[in-house]
Amino acid sequence: MTPSPTLYTVREIADxxxxxxxTAYRLVQExxxxxxxxxxxxxxxxxxxxxYIESGLQAVPKKGKDDKKGSEQxxxxx
Length: 78
Prior knowledge:
Residues 7-55 form the Helix-turn-helix domain. One of its GO terms (molecular function) is DNA binding. By secondary structure, this protein is an alpha+beta fold. 38% of the residues lie in helices and 13% in strands. The protein is built from three helices and three strands. It has helices at 10-17, 21-29, 46-58, and strands at residues 7-8, 36-38, 41-45. Strand 2 (36-38) and strand 3 form a beta hairpin. Helix 1 packs across helix 2. The chain starts with 6 loop residues before the first strand and ends in a 20-residue tail after the last helix.
């Protein structure tokens, strides 16, 4: 039997990303974080959450020699 994917609620996504639940809901509703609607509630597969986080990591420019050490910030596309 194939193991079922881990599905997160919008509140769990908000807790994981440490953002307000309304922000997490907007990200899912706008498709920035891919999810599925089960009845009236959204569920987000773990793979979609990881893709979203990875997209934020890839968007960070590489540090050049003019950059200050320790000033690297990761920004997710909110």
